[in-house]
Amino acid sequence: MCVAIYLGLYQLRVISAVWDPLFGRGSELVLDSRASQAIRRFTIVPDSILGAVAYGCELLFALIGSSERYRRHRWLVLLFGLNSAALALAAVALIALQAFIIHAGCFFCLTSAAVSLTIGALAFEEVKAAVAGAA
Length: 135
What we know:
Layout: H1 2-11, H2 26-31, H3 34-43, H4 47-63, H5 69-72, H6 74-102, H7 107-134
Helix pairs in contact: 1-4, 4-6, 6-7
């Protein structure tokens, strides 16, 4: 979430540059790309800020409830799973966009994508248990 906020500050022009230890100006090329601009035209909000909101929701869903929530609050686990799956799909799309369309890399975008894919994989078992318990 912090990474997305940092990138969002650039997209909102609160800061003038993004530090990227691996790709140099690659982050700025990704954040200013046509794909990113298209998302902003559609949603009015920069894509990184949308990501920060989604990460905030994921954090909230992950923290609410006990270790038994897959039994008692299945709906919460399903919301967590849907949010995590959406972020994982967005991560795959982000990786593909950078590699095949934008032809530039963004270190923090790719780091965020890796975290989203990891959380999505970890959430799968809990969602599976909640669905199995409902059956």
